[in-house]
Amino acid sequence: MNPIIMALLLAVSLGIFAWSFMRRWKLLMVGSPEMRWDNVGERIKRTWVYAFAQKRMTRYTWAGVAHRMIFTGFMVLLIRSLILFSRGFIPDSSLLLFQPHTLLGDVYSLLKDIFVVLVMLGAIVFLYYRLVVKLPRMTKSTEGVIILGIIVVMMVADVLYDGAWMVLHVGADANVGFNVWEPAGSVMALMLQNAGTGMLTFLAHAGFWIHVSLVLIFLNVLPYSKHFHIITAIPNVFLQDLNPKGRLAPIVDIEGKLEREETLGIKSINQFSWKSILDFYTCTECGRCSDQCPANNTGKKLSPKHFTVDLRNFLYENEKGLVAGKNGTNGNGTNGHGSNGGGESTDEGGIHYKDLIDGVIDPEVLWACTTCRACETECPVFITYVDKIVDMRRYLVQERGEFPNELQTAFRGLESNMNPWGFAPDERANWASGLDVPLIAENPEADVLFWVGCAPSYDDRAKKTARATAILMKQAGVNFAILGPEEQCTGDPARRAGNEFLFQMFAEANTETLNGYNVKKIVTTCPHCYNTLDHEYGDYGGHYEVVHHSDFLADLVRSGKLKPTQPVKAKVVYHDSCYLGRYNDMYDSPRDLLRSIPGVTLVEPVETRDRGMCCGAGGAQMFKEEESGEERVNERRTEQLLKTDPNVVSSACPFCMRMLTDGLAGKDREDVEQLDIAEMLLRSVGETPNEATPETAST
Ligand code: SF4
Ligand code: SF4
After folding, report:
1. Which of 351, 372, 400 is the last residue before a domain boundary?
2. pLDDT of 6 higher than 60
3. Which terminus of the chain, N or C, has less C-beta within 10 A?
4. Last residue of one domain, picked from the residues 333, 365, 400
């Protein structure tokens, strides 16, 4: 072709790309430090499964197939682009390795032709979604259409170049034929075989230069578009958080040392870690997160996609000042940020930009989150939300003292009486009256500590779950005890509401108590307690085997220590708790338990397991009013469950129980019972607690 033009084209476009890349790199480095290099083996494994094999895209039939075709095609066609660049200098170059009529050369050219067609088809599928179906979750922008158009033209240009080149090289006296190793190119050659040499030369050159130019234009567009994910998605998957999904990082470490020095929580964009900034870069704006978000789906202001996009836009708008501040070149070498507590903010170097909260993110957005993780479970590139939202709540609560009024009551109750309702601590074990449940002080050799939790201790409805569980454990001969008045809230609602110091107070007090009794194994009926005890108390010196009662009771049934023999005729729909399912992958035990009960017909709602909708209680929502929207989250969830026409809505979480009981009442469907799995099991095992009337087939 033309070595001078190719050399100029490569030098200019790669130069501009390197400059753009450095801009993005410097902006990334504005973020606070974070360690994401541990456990490389696990990271490689996950990168293979989620980035290369694109496991999460299998949830979307056609979009999933189309995305895989494009992704794999880009991998294969990377070599093709290098070959074409080299042909700018040496016309027949095949990078030595891919010479025609060698095994590697033939296999590669076959693969290349297959993927050229597949990439084109994939791009057409996405064009169809954008232009015809107009999926609401997708951002409406011409950028996406232009990029897809570029991809289609690149593929057509490649085949055109191959076809014209083949005809030119076959010689005037010979006919081109179908070549199994170059199917697309040879079909194009057959179509062009009657064209004149001038036309063929023009088409070969046009195909070649269009293809290579578009590759280089495409490369330079990436850092400035949502398609930057083509570069950042694989690193983002590799660098994902390997901690348990339910663990929030402490602000303050165990020695009381602040992890972030400037403020408690996040108020300005450079307090996010570099990995969070990589998350912002990587968002493809596909909207799958918002599609699953219970807040978004019930008309609240929160849309996780827009949360990320707004922060990304803000980051880009303030690039210059942030990078200057980081490098100490903003006039006086400072990189701190002063704030007037909302709205405009200034650093000492005179760089002006808005505070994140109020200025970029409405506080109502932050308070609408139930921390359900539906967004994170759905995101194909592993962008996280709960950590960012809680970090911003921490700033609001601990620095500004701004939070919904109702949370004040919960915080006060927690501070004075160690439970969010403010009930007296010495009434904590009243739920067990008449059951002869020992305190651990009386039975220090107990094999199991039954961690009851605040709701099952004080809430009249949830107390029945605690009683049922205790009765079942006694029937199975489990040597267990409770802490009674020594138990305090785990601190989960305080932590998710942003009150990290209050959480820390509980974590330290409870671990001291538990360690004082040398507790090894804990059973709890509350998924929030489960999550906190299992995944978060380790940061405070508490290391226990924590078992949720769904696993514990299912094991007792499997081992024959509990025998569900009495039929309980009921059509039961099970509601997945977010903190049990999406947080801890416990989907089967509660279902196994329900299936072990004779007479039970278990049905599934459409929105089930990791796509089950939140009940609306998590993230401290239980203790505050919902933000205004079109509908309450628990009512939407109740509707979904009622579509299965059940007699019983079963759950395994006291918070879900409260929300669904209210949801059923709101729908005038009190004819449908709301029962914990332990209550269901107790009905079948035989002996029943006084307040849980059996409805067995024999009665
Ligand atoms: S955690 Fe749940 S409520 Fe919060 S943004 Fe994600 S999907 Fe929405
Ligand atoms: S955060 Fe993930 S799921 Fe949501 S729009 Fe961005 S890429 Fe899509």
Report:
1. 400
2. yes
3. C
4. 400
Q: Which atom of ligand 1 is nearest to the CA of 296?
A: 8
Instruction: Out of 381, 382, 386, 389, give the residue to mutate to test ligand 2, the one with the largest number of ligand atoms within 8 Å of its CB.
Output: 381
Residue 672 CA to residue 623 CA, distance in Å, equals: 25
Which residue has the least CA distance to atom 8 on ligand 1? 293
Query: For the segment 623-640, what is each residue's pLDDT rounded down to a tens digit?
Result: 999 999 999 999 999 999
Query: 152 and 290, same structural domain?
Result: no
Question: What would the pLDDT profile of 117-156 be if each residue is shown by its tens digit?
Answer: 999 999 999 999 999 999 888 877 889 999 999 999 999 9
Closest approach atom of ligand 2 to CA 290: 4
Taking the whole predicted model, whether its pTM rises above 0.90 is answered as yes
Same-domain check for residues 185 and 46 = yes
Distance CA 642, CA 639 (A): 5
CA of 373 to the centre of ligand 1 (A): 5
Is the pLDDT at 346 greater than 80? The verdict is: no
Of 278, 280, 283, the residue with max ligand 2 atoms within 8 A of its CB, to mutate for a pocket test, comes to 283
- 295 and 212 within one domain: no
Q: What is the pLDDT of residues 26-69, one digit of tens each?
A: 999 999 999 999 999 999 999 999 999 999 999 999 999 999 99
What pLDDT does 256 receive? 56
The answer on 295 and 223 residing in a single domain is no
Instruction: Catalogue the E-assigned strands of 608-694.
Output: 648-651, 673-676
User: What percent of the chain stands above pLDDT 70?
Assistant: 92
Rounded Cα gap, residues 265 and 64, in angstroms: 37
Residue 431 lies in a domain: no
CATH number, domain containing residue 628: 3.40.50
On whether both 38 and 168 belong to a single domain, the answer is yes
Task: Give per-residue pLDDT as tens, 461-474.
Answer: 999 999 999 999 99
Residue 317 tokens, joined:
């708008």
Mutate to test the pocket of ligand 1, among 290, 370, 614 (most ligand atoms within 8 A of CB): 370
Least confident of 186-190, 323-327, 401-405, 659-663: 323-327
Stretch (H or E) spanning 346: strand 344-346
CA 370 to ligand 1: nearest atom: 3
- Tell me the CATH number at 281: 1.10.1060
User: Is 464 inside a domain boundary?
Assistant: no
Examine the domain organization and report whether 213 and 276 are in the same domain: no
In a domain, 275, yes or no: yes
Alpha carbon 170 to its chain centroid, in Å, reads 54
| CATH number of the domain to which 187 belongs | 1.20.950.20
Which pLDDT value is given to residue 91? 87
**CA pair distance 651, 193, nearest whole angstrom:** 69
In DSSP terms, which residues pair with 439 in a beta bridge? Answer: 482
Query: Which domain does 229 fall in, by range?
Result: 3-237
* The total number of structural domains that make up the chain: 3
| Structure tokens that stand for 148 in this block | 């897809």
Residue 369, ligand 1, Cβ within 6 A: yes
Q: In whole angstroms, give the CA distance from residue 535 to residue 539.
A: 8
Instruction: State whether 190 and 280 are in the same domain.
Output: no
Tell me, in angstroms, the distance from the centre of ligand 2 to residue 231's CA.
15
State whether 232 and 295 are in the same domain.
Answer: no
Predicted local distance difference test score (pLDDT) of residue 335: 39
